[in-house]
From TrEMBL:
Cited Gene3D superfamilies: P-loop containing nucleotide triphosphate hydrolases
Protein name as catalogued: Peptide/nickel transport system ATP-binding protein/oligopeptide transport system ATP-binding protein
GO terms, biological process: peptide transport; transmembrane transport
GO molecular function, one term: ATP binding
Matches recorded under InterPro entries: AAA+_ATPase (IPR003593), ABC_transp_ATP-bind (IPR050319), ABC_transporter-like_ATP-bd (IPR003439), ABC_transporter-like_CS (IPR017871), Oligopep_ABC_C (IPR013563), P-loop_NTPase (IPR027417)
Native organism taxonomy: Bacteria, Bacillati, Actinomycetota, Actinomycetes, Pseudonocardiales
Family annotation (PROSITE patterns): ABC_TRANSPORTER_1, ABC_TRANSPORTER_2
């Protein structure tokens, strides 16, 4: 077993240390994205849905930021915008202080050397007509970083870095297990030695034991290479294993964020509490299961609040004011922020809005 796949305890993960704006590798501000649902006979949009509604997000050098939310929360859309697979309708994305929001052509190709993506489906992300060795070295060919004679040695090196036998370079994706395919996908993403990795549900298609191995692999790669990671998942148990900070999304907006240990120990938003309660296991050594949070069933329980909190119809602690006021994300100290009127009411204080 290589260093990258050794068993990793939670206590080994570096403690989150707030950084100044100048130390951010990635900074996104005011990201918006809507998708067309229907068009008229002339092709003009007549119905849209907003997937991401004005979020801010930053990632420091060597930091993992976990983006959590249920299906439809907008987390995958955020990841695709950060990776420049989608162009935001509005907002700005900076990488090392450089605006990369709308770069294209050669500039976008050059950006791929710094920023790579690992997708949810390891089989769908690998070309089934090419052997694994060809797949993992393809980025080197595209970016002209290795000659044809060098490729077999580079393939062996990349596979070894993710604890795969170099012999597998001659096999095709369908001959590998799900975990082996995901390792190959990670090897391909690391071929260009990126500084930022966007991992979109990288373990959701795998069994439990393989998930742990992949997460340990990512943690080892991060430590060895000072890699920054945006980890997108619906599962707090997965995010807890890697994340220094956690960002919780609901209906396209950030509703809570903060250092992982603080947010896991004391979630301030009812939605965050519900996600934690629904997780398979936030801590394997928990002596008692976390108390379940009963959410209301939406419109059947309470009418929607067009001008109020988006979570109003499902919230078990909603107040009358929640139907009228849309809470802003506010700083509650130590890098922890939440968008919830109930929190302000409970603590009897008001805060100034803050960015992500």
């Amino acid at each position: 077993m290589t260093r990258s796949t050794r068993s990793v305890d939670r206590e080994e993960k570096p403690v989150h240390v707030p950084v100044s704006a100048g130390e951010h590798l990635l900074r996104a501000q005011g990201l918006h994205k809507a998708f067309v649902l229907a068009r008229d006979l002339l092709g003009r949009p007549v119905a849209r849905t907003t997937a991401v509604d004005g979020i801010d997000l930053h990632v420091a050098h060597g930091e993992t930021v976990g983006v959590v939310g249920e299906s439809g929360s907008g987390k995958t859309t955020v990841g695709r915008m950060l990776a420049r697979l989608l162009v935001p309708d509005a907002g700005r994305i900076e990488l090392d202080g450089r605006d990369v929001t709308r770069v294209r052509g050669r500039e976008l190709t050059a950006l791929r050397r710094t920023l790579q993506v690992v997708f949810q489906d390891p089989y769908g992300s690998l070309d089934p007509t090419k052997p694994v060795g060809s797949a993992v070295t393809e980025p080197l060919v595209v970016h002209r970083l290795a000659g044809r004679r060098e490729l077999p040695a580079r393939a062996a090196e990349l596979l070894d870095a993710v604890a795969l036998d170099p012999v597998l370079a001659q096999r095709y994706p369908h001959e590998l297990s799900g975990g082996q395919r995901q390792r190959a996908a990670i090897a391909r993403a690391m071929a260009l030695e990126p500084r930022l990795l966007v991992a979109d549900e990288p373990t959701s298609a795998l069994d439990l034991s393989t998930r742990s191995e992949i997460l340990n692999l990512l943690l080892g790669l991060q430590r060895d290479r000072n890699l920054s990671i945006v980890l997108i998942s619906h599962d707090f148990a997965t995010v807890r294993h890697l994340a220094h900070r956690i960002v919780v999304m609901y209906r396209g907006r950030v509703i809570e964020q903060g250092p992982a240990e603080d947010l896991l120990a004391e979630p301030l938003h009812p939605y965050t509490g519900a996600l934690l309660a629904a997780a398979r296991a936030v801590r394997p050594d928990d002596a008692a299961p976390r108390e379940r949070v009963a959410l209301r069933s939406g419109r059947a329980a309470r009418p929607e609040a067009p001008g109020g909190c988006a979570f109003y119809s499902r919230c078990p602690v909603a107040m009358d004011a929640c139907a009228e006021a849309d809470p802003a994300l506010v700083d509650v100290g130590a890098g922890h922020s939440v968008a919830c009127l109930h929190h302000d009411h409970r603590h009897g204080q008001q805060h100034a809005p803050t960015g992500a």
